Amino acid sequence: MSNKQREQLLGRAANQRSRQQEPLPPMKWQFDMRVVDVNRTFRVTKAGGIQSFTAFVVCGNYEGIAGYGKGKASDVGYAVDKAYRRSLRNLHFFDIYMNRTIYHSQRSKFGATHVKLWPADKGVGLVASDVVGDILFLAGFKDMKSKVIGSRHPHSTVKALFKALCEVETPEVLPAIRPQGLFSWSL
After folding, report:
1. Which residue, 42, 79, 89, 35, is CA-closest to 57?
2. What are phi and psi of 116, to 5 degrees?
3. Radius of gyration from C-alpha coordinates of the chain
4. What is the pLDDT of residue 170?
5. 149 phi and psi, to 5 degrees?
6. At a CB cut-off of 8 Å and minimum separation 6, what does 172 contact?
7. What CA–CA distance (Å, rounded) separates 14 from 51?
8. Residues paired with 33 in a beta bridge
9. Which residues, given as ranges, of the chain have pLDDT below 50?
10. Which UniProt key words apply to this protein (predicted)?
11. Which one of 93, 155, 170, 172 has the largest count of C-beta atoms within 10 Å of its C-beta?
12. Which CATH number does the domain housing residue 70 bear?
């Protein structure tokens, strides 16, 4: 490889980095966020190593709305910012029973990860792992129990948890799905 080719390669990488470091415009919505996972990858080329980061972020407003996103960049801060912006595009609404828990127990699976959720009595708090507890707290749940079985990879855990929370049915929705004469709700 000639010196001219090396300079061109390095010049391209420098231009890409300077483009990515530009500040992004401010956000309209202010959701709190938690960084779930940050991965560093290192690719070796003829001109040297190229480092990149992947961030996985969860955001929520403590009132039943939460989302998750993944961002990649050559800098950790920029990757987290991209992940936060993507999480705002992937928001989910969850119904909260009595402003603290879910309506019924729920289980869900994503890949090799199984997540089980149970409603809890008032004052129990969040009995959950760090990842699941952060998401439930950001979504606005106060009393709930959970168990993660199988793979505990943070990405799979987040996706399985969101799938389980989206599958929780409210008493208002159930009569439309099932015949009303089969059961009655008492809340």
Report:
1. 35
2. -115, 135
3. 22
4. 84
5. -120, 140
6. none
7. 13
8. 59
9. 6, 9-10, 12-19
10. Ribonucleoprotein, Ribosomal protein, RNA-binding, rRNA-binding
11. 155
12. 3.30.160.20
